[in-house]
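Deviation from plan, reported transparently: nicotinamide-adenine-dinucleotide complex.
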Amino acid sequence: MSSSAREAYEIKEEFDFLKRTKLEFEKAVQFINAEVRPIEKGIVRRLEQPFRQLTVTFPVKMDDGSIQMFTGYMVQHSRSYEPTKGGIRYSPEVKLDLITALAFDMTLKCRVADLPYGGSKGGVCCDPKKMSQAELERLTRRYTYEILPVLGPDSCVPAPDIGTSEREMGIIYDTYKMLNPHSPYAPAVVTGKPLSLGGSKGRREATARGGAYVLEEAVKQGHIEGLSSLKDAAVVVQGIGNVGYNIASILYEDYGCRIVGISDSKGGIYCQEGLNPKDVLAYKQNVSPEKSVVGYDGLQPLTVEQLLTSPCDILVPAAKETQIVGALAKDIKAKVILELANGPTTNLAHKILIDKNVYVLPDILANAGGVTVSYFEWLQNKAGENWELSMVEEKLRKKMVTAYTNVVETAKNHNLDMRNAAFVIAVSKEIEILTARGIFP
Ligand code: NAD
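Because the crystal trials were delayed, the predicted structure below was used instead.
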């Protein structure tokens, strides 16, 4: 066993996403302190904590006439740049610590992608799969009203995340505009909106498209051992929501990959010859009684663990945090992991993967395409413009390739893994901004 493998097995596995983010942050701080320049301790403490955590509770009238109480959050992590930016999540797993971790991640992601935003994240603890469209609309309007004190095109600009989509973003815009009729830049209060309300072309696919650009660059530069082309490369995708479906489609249609595995929350399927993501989604939406990919084409159902350890070249976790854990990592067969979900890999699993020479493209780099095109949408709304898709994609590619190149160079120059390097870049930039601004008053 190599010394780094021994070290990996000695690491305490951290399943809590906030604690894990703080560990990565501490590691980056230690590196900068030792190798670059000493950081004022107070600045480190400032960076570790969100500047605002808003918790709201509110009633929603349900379709059966009953009234149900919900708890929602809006956490703004950094005001180094404003507005703050991040998705809104609807899930039964939403709680303050998770939203805080995701807001922290957003700040770091914006620094890696070089976007002038602080990080934030919102969410409501609810189960959107068990609610009607009318109930979700009432919940979204009331939640928007409750977070109104912090919401605004220059203060806090949400976007879609798990359980929310263009539809909810349109409702947030409408609610904000009704309550702020004279706001000149109201469409810029939220991104990921429908095109008819000022949404950007390419936003729906942006997280996946950005990830594909990073993966393409890594292959082109020969950074993934044993993978010299994306053509016919075998891909497993966990999750078939916005991000998972789009990455499967893009890799299948634009890069000629073979999508051998796909899953949703009910299980997965695997087919060596390859699946057409469009057909799998159509089966899930229109045929499956459980609204699942399981059962497609009579394929054997797989558990989450079986899917993640199936034979493939590229593994794309695109569901939720803490999916690739230490107990699974040693059995993972992929050559590269493209982290499109936020926080899908635990610290122990990451160490084991690095030791196995798996190339891990970390979330704060790999999935930054979503917030990047959100930034483009916000710019278009502010300027009253409507960019062509080719322009959005060209600008996205440039941003993602530049971010990837910076992370690779930092990793090479300082002998760091890609996650470590991305954190070092993000933390260094954030410190630079905070130091330049100084402490108010
Ligand atoms: P979504 O709600 O559209 O889709 C989530 C998918 O994950 C669903 O298909 C669901 O069935 C599936 N899922 C849930 N639990 C699962 C499990 N245990 N195994 C397999 N599948 C499971 O959400 P999304 O917007 O596609 O977000 C997916 C991930 O990408 C999240 O981690 C999110 O934070 C991250 N992300 C999203 C964006 C964006 O622009 N939407 C941007 C950056 C990062």
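Residues 389-414 form the longest helix (26 residues). We consider this an acceptable substitute for the interim report.
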